[in-house]
């Protein structure tokens, strides 16, 4: 099923491939790739330190400007015309990403545990009900979901923003796969020791799948942070604007846009998920690719 | 594979799957069912209720040249995004797989854009390509190449393709690199002994061995381009100018949320649902699972 893939650590190579001479071609190609990703972000960073008036006149440049971090202070504390301050958007985005990531992990872990380690009536039905949600993404049920949400009075509430996104077929499938690989002997031993199902879950299953949980957390945090269609649909008040929604709101009329402020907001929107991915890179990469094979 | 050792009882497992089942039924099945129902109805002219019209919404859609054009445009868009992001990712992965100094750093610098939200990648490209403000857009206009995606449909389509593909390169890079690393070194060594080098070795040995990864990525990228690019497109062009960047999901949103044509929007949702089911079946039938939200 899954094979360990050392994408981060050095893979063993034979002596024949070890080069004394630098591999200039590889450095050149990878350097261009790095620039392809870095330059757009650098442009936003440089632009965020320039004067919005100058940017509007067409003077956006790749060199940092004279304004320093003024645009960051401006958007973080005050926002733009008609938007919340960016610190508030960051709070909503962070809360949304955390609730979605943790919520998905918890309810998927529990349902996979029930499906794998118990026999109960309608077990298969329950599994299929969860599985089929894979085929019903928000994008294909835009209007009726709005209707359901408003019948439940969940429009423009934090619960409405997060709870409906917590169901996860993929996370459930992943945990089912991990749990299925746990040897019967381990379950037997735990039962001999008098461990009930919940202690078995806490003391054995969760520690055993800790790295998978870490990988899943990264994927789901990024998924939650980056949501756009869902909040656009169900959170119609600026009070609940995430940073991804808020930044689009900032570009109302292009000729009146505070471009330095928008660029500062783009940089602020990038930082949290990028930090999560980079810091947890090792688990994230192996977790992402392992499930596939 | 069925497990021999199990815990007893059915109340606990029922409670454990309940949260996931409730969310799935309330927020996935109920709206999906409503979408199917309203795809068969239409609002009566006085807005007093809905009338059952059978397959009328569907026949109207398939008789509408604008809908057919949107289907074709979506296919073109998806193919372009997948081809562009996968080919760049493959080139980068091949060189990142070489035994060079600083590979760990290169990998981190190529992986982080995974964390970038589609909308934020759209904003970064706005800073580059906006005709008045953007670095490149302004340069093009100053050098006698008229560039304005607000007016020119082809340029708008090009822009949303680039912004969508850019963000997806990292994901593809991670999988291609993992695929390359899982090719046994002995196979590559044997090819080397036989005198196969460079491009020839890649074309005859490496690329065919990557086929499972490539096939998996094609499905994932088509799904991404069809469904997850709504934010990119909506925040940049809202489907315009005219219909030139309108994909199927954008059209569902436009017709349902903006134009309030619920019957047609629901029928389109149902057609999209069929598309997701098809992609999911292909994925599970031929490639195994996916770990993505």
Characterize the structure shown.
The complex is a heterodimer of chains A (293) and B (293). In chain A, 65% of the residues lie in helices and 0% in strands. With 293 residues, chain A is an all-alpha fold. Chain A has a single domain, classed as Orthogonal Bundle (MetI-like fold). The termini of chain A are close together. The N terminus of chain A is likely disordered. Chain B has 293 residues and is mainly alpha-helical. Chain B has a single domain, classed as Orthogonal Bundle (MetI-like fold), CATH 1.10.3720. Chain B contains 13 helices and two strands; from the N terminus they run αββαααααααααααα. Chain B has a two-stranded antiparallel ribbon. In chain B, helix 2 crosses helix 13, helix 3 runs parallel beside helix 7 and helix 5 packs across helix 7. The model of chain B has no long low-confidence stretch (mean pLDDT 87). The interface between A and B is large, with 127 and 110 residues.
The main sheet of chain A comes to: none
Biggest contact: A-B, 127 and 110 residues
Largest beta sheet of chain B: what is the strand line-up?
A: 1-2
Major sheet characteristics of chain B: 2 strands, antiparallel
Distance between the termini of chain A: 6 Å
CATH domain fold name of chain B: MetI-like fold
What is the gist of this entry?
The complex is a heterodimer of chains A (293) and B (293). Chain A contains 15 helices and no strands. With 293 residues, chain A is mainly alpha-helical.
């Amino acid at each position: 099923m899954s094979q360990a893939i050392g994408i981060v650590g050095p893979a063993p190579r034979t002596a024949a491939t070890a080069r004394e001479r630098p591999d200039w071609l590889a450095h050149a190609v990878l350097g261009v790739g790095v620039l392809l990703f870095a330059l757009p972000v650098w442009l936003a960073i440089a632009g965020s330190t320039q004067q919005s008036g100058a940017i509007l006149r067409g003077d956006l440049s790749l060199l940092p400007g004279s304004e320093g971090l003024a645009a960051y202070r401006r958007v973080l504390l005050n926002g733009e015309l008609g938007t919340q301050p960016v610190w508030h958007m960051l709070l909503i985005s962070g809360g949304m990403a955390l609730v979605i990531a943790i919520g998905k992990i918890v309810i998927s872990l529990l349902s996979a545990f029930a499906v794998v380690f118990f026999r109960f009536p309608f077990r298969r039905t329950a599994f299929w009900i969860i599985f089929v949600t894979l085929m019903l993404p928000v994008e294909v049920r835009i209007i009726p979901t709005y209707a359901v949400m408003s019948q439940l009075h969940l429009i423009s509430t934090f619960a409405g923003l997060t709870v409906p996104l917590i169901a996860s077929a993929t996370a459930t499938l992943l945990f089912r796969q991990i749990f299925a690989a746990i040897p019967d002997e381990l379950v037997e031993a735990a039962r001999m020791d008098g461990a009930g199902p919940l202690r078995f879950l806490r003391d054995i299953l969760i520690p055993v799948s800790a790295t998978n949980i870490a990988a899943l957390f990264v994927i789901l945090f990024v998924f939650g942070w980056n949501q756009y269609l869902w909040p656009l649909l169900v959170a119609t008040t600026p009070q609940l604007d995430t940073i991804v929604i808020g930044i689009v709101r900032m570009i109302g009329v292009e000729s009146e846009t505070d471009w330095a402020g928008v660029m500062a907001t783009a940089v602020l929107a990038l930082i949290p998920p990028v930090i999560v991915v980079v810091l947890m890179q090792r688990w994230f990469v192996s977790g992402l690719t392992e499930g596939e094979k | 594979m069925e497990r021999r050792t199990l815990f007893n009882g059915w109340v606990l497992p029922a409670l454990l799957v309940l949260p996931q089942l409730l969310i799935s039924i309330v927020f996935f099945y109920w709206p999906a069912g409503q979408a199917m129902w309203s795809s068969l109805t239409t609002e009566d002219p006085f807005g007093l209720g809905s009338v059952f019209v059978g397959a009328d919404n569907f026949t109207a859609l398939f008789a509408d040249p604008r809908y057919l054009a949107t289907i074709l445009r979506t296919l073109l868009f998806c193919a372009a995004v997948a081809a562009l992001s996968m080919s760049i990712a493959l080139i980068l992965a091949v060189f990142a797989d070489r035994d060079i100094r600083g590979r760990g750093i290169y990998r981190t610098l190529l992986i982080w854009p995974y964390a970038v939200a589609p909308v934020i990648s759209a904003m970064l490209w706005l800073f580059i390509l906006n005709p008045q403000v953007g670095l490149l857009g302004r340069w093009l206009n100053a050098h006698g190449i008229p560039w304005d995606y607000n007016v020119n449909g082809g340029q708008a389509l090009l822009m949303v393709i680039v912004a969508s593909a850019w963000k997806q390169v990292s994901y593809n890079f991670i999988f291609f690199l993992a695929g390359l690393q899982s090719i046994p070194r002995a196979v590559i060594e044997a090819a080397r002994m036989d005198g196969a080098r460079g491009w020839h070795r890649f074309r005859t040995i490496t690329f065919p061995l990557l086929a499972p990864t490539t096939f998996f990525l094609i499905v994932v990228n088509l799904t991404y381009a069809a469904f997850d690019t709504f934010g990119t497109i909506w925040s940049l062009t809202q489907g315009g100018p005219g219909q030139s960047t309108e994909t199927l999901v954008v059209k569902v949103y436009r017709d349902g949320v903006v134009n309030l044509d619920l019957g047609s929007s629901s029928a389109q949702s149902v057609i999209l649902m069929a598309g997701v089911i098809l992609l999911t079946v292909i994925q599970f039938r031929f490639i195994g699972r996916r770990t993505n939200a």
